[in-house]
Amino acid sequence: MSSPVVTVGRPARPRAVVGLVAALLLALAVTACTSGGDTDGDEAVTGSSDEGSSEFPARDARRPTIRLGVTDWTGARINVAIAELLIERRLGYPVEAVPVLDMAPMLRDLESGELDAVLELWPSGLIESERKAIDDGPFVDLGPLGVEGKVGWWVPRYVVDGELGVRSWEDLGDPDVVAALAVPSGGDRGRFLGTDPSYEQYDEELIEALELPYDVDYSGSDAATEAEVAAATAAGRPILLYWWTPTALVARHDLVNVALPPRTDECLAERAAGGPTRCDYPVDRLFKLGSPALADKAPDVEGFLRAFRLDTDDQLDLIDAVENEGRAVGEAAGAWVDANGDRWSAWLP
Question: Which residue has the higher pLDDT, 195 or 44?
Answer without folding.
Answer: 195
